[in-house]
Structure formats: structure tokens, C-alpha cells
């Protein structure tokens, strides 16, 4: 069974059908990209899955459990938005520990060490965000999301505020980290090149609908 299952989701704003009858399944461990022009409904769809936007119609299941109607913080979904929003006055360790409220105090040091190893930031735990590269900051943001032990992670244009050179390195680093976690990822991107190199499968949205879903090469080889 898929980890995430979207069935006939719709969301209207006035006269605009922002999301129009969208169905999609995402498998365990899959990195799935959502691409399409600005205004096609990508962010709205992500917010519906996260629980920040109501559904007008449809169902969302996570590991076969119905989650629409459940509060965002209880869905088991981790989210990393464009601006990673690390706390600038806290070290890497502080940022990660902040997300470990649910972890018993005695288990936090070991958990912190394993998160740092996962994103390959060992030795940097006493640095502040402005002492890290953009790619390193992005990995701290990911680690903070993993700290909450999510079942699915949503990324909204995760590389958009990195410069072009850094973006390629960060992309490779982060793809490796994500694949190692075995988590399922749904990410929004504007960038075809990024979708092609980063994702296992992609869905192309237009005017609120998913027009195509497939492997990147399949989608891009079609006219
Ligand atoms: P994308 O993320 O692909 O750029 P969005 O999901 O942000 O697209 O927007 C889809 C459509 O829904 C757009 O026409 C946008 O203007 C509209 N929209 C999104 N959010 C709102 C809102 N809160 N109120 C009114 N219209 C909205
Ligand atoms: P993105 O480009 O990342 O999709 P947008 O700039 O479209 O983001 O939207 C940013 C915020 O503005 C979102 O919270 C969205 O709901 C809201 N929004 C987008 N379009 C409209 C709109 N036409 N009317 C009201 N709010 C909107």
C-alpha cells in the first residue's frame, strides 16, 4: 500500500479552482516532485496535505489512515518551507533539541548525535546558523524535521534560496540524506532540471489538475 494516498482532492478560492480533482499515490521511500507553472496549485495542495488548508472535497490517507480532519501537528508530517527558518540565536544543537520535546530528556544526546550523523554535520553542533553554508543550513532544517520522527516530509522549493553553484552540491547531499532515511518525500519545485536529477517520479500540474505522473525521463520525453 502507498504511504500517501490522495483521492479526488479539490479546493476552490472564489472563482478559482486552485486544486481540481487531484488523486495521487506515493510509495514508501519515494521522492516525488510536483512541478508546474506559478499559480497551478502546488502550494495549495501541499498545504492541504499538511493540514493548513481545508478540503472542499476528497480524502487524504497516510499509511492507510484517514488524516484530513486531524490537526496538522498530529498528522506525522514534517514540513520544510523555502526559508528554513532556523532560530538564528540558537546553535545547531539548540535548533535540533528544540524539536525533540517529545523525546525523553535522557535520550536526547544520543538522538542528537544520530541526527547529526544522518545529515553529516558531526562536529558542527556548536555553530550558529550564520556560520554555516546554505547547504549546511538546509541540512539542519531537514534534521530538525526528522527529529520529530515524521512519516512523510513535504518540501516547498527547498533549494530556491541557494545560488546556482551551491544548489547542485546541496541537492546531491540532500538527496543522499533523504534516500538514507527511507522516508517518503513530496517536494514542490519550479525547476525541471532539479526535478529530473532529484526525483524518482514527478507529477506535472496545470490549472489545479495533475496532467501527468511518471518517472522524470518518461514525463520529459513526451511532447
Ligand atoms: P502555486 O503554488 O503552484 O504557485 P498556489 O497553490 O499558490 O499555486 O495557487 C493556486 C491558485 O490559487 C492561484 O490562482 C492562487 O492565486 C490561488 N490562491 C492560493 N491561495 C489562495 C488564497 N488563500 N486565497 C485566494 N486565492 C488563493
Ligand atoms: P507561491 O508562489 O509559493 O505559491 P504565493 O505567493 O502564490 O506563493 O502565495 C503566498 C501566500 O499568499 C499563500 O499563503 C497563498 O495562500 C496566498 N495567496 C496566493 N494567491 C492568493 C490570492 N489570489 N488571494 C489571496 N491569497 C493568496
From TrEMBL:
<dbReference type="GO" id="GO:0043190">
    <property type="term" value="C:ATP-binding cassette (ABC) transporter complex"/>
</dbReference>
<dbReference type="GO" id="GO:0005524">
    <property type="term" value="F:ATP binding"/>
</dbReference>
<keyword id="KW-0813">Transport</keyword>
<feature type="domain" description="ABC transporter">
    <location>
        <begin position="4"/>
        <end position="223"/>
    </location>
</feature>
<dbReference type="GO" id="GO:0015697">
    <property type="term" value="P:quaternary ammonium group transport"/>
</dbReference>
<comment type="similarity">
    <text>Belongs to the ABC transporter superfamily.</text>
</comment>
<dbReference type="GO" id="GO:0016887">
    <property type="term" value="F:ATP hydrolysis activity"/>
</dbReference>
<keyword id="KW-0067">ATP-binding</keyword>
<keyword id="KW-0547">Nucleotide-binding</keyword>
<dbReference type="GO" id="GO:0022857">
    <property type="term" value="F:transmembrane transporter activity"/>
</dbReference>
<protein>
    <submittedName>
        <fullName>Spermidine/putrescine ABC transporter ATPase</fullName>
    </submittedName>
</protein>
Amino acid at each position: 500500500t502507498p504511504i500517501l494516498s490522495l483521492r479526488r482532492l479539490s479546493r476552490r478560492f472564489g472563482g478559482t479552482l486552485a486544486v481540481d480533482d487531484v488523486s495521487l499515490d506515493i510509495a514508501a521511500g519515494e521522492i516525488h516532485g510536483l512541478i508546474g507553472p506559478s499559480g497551478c496549485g502546488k502550494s495549495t495542495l501541499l498545504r492541504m496535505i499538511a493540514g493548513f488548508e481545508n478540503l472542499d472535497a476528497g480524502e487524504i490517507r497516510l499509511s492507510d489512515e484517514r488524516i484530513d480532519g486531524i490537526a496538522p501537528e498530529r498528522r506525522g508530517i514534517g514540513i520544510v518551507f523555502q526559508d528554513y527558518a532556523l532560530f538564528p540565536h540558537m546553535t545547531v544543537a539548540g535548533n535540533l533539541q528544540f524539536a525533540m520535546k517529545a523525546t525523553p530528556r535522557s535520550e536526547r544526546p544520543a538522538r542528537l548525535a544520530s541526527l547529526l550523523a544522518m545529515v553529516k554535520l558531526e562536529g558542527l553542533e556548536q555553530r550558529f546558523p550564520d556560520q554555516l553554508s546554505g547547504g549546511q543550513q538546509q541540512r539542519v532544517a531537514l534534521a530538525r524535521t526528522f527529529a520529530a520522527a515524521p512519516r512523510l516530509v513535504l518540501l516547498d522549493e527547498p533549494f530556491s534560496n541557494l545560488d546556482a553553484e551551491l544548489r547542485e552540491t546541496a541537492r546531491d547531499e540532500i538527496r543522499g540524506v533523504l534516500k538514507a532515511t527511507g522516508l517518503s518525500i513530496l517536494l514542490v519545485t519550479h525547476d525541471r532540471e532539479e526535478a529530473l536529477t532529484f526525483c524518482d517520479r514527478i507529477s506535472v500540474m496545470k490549472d489545479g489538475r495533475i496532467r501527468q505522473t511518471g518517472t522524470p525521463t518518461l514525463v520529459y520525453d513526451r511532447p
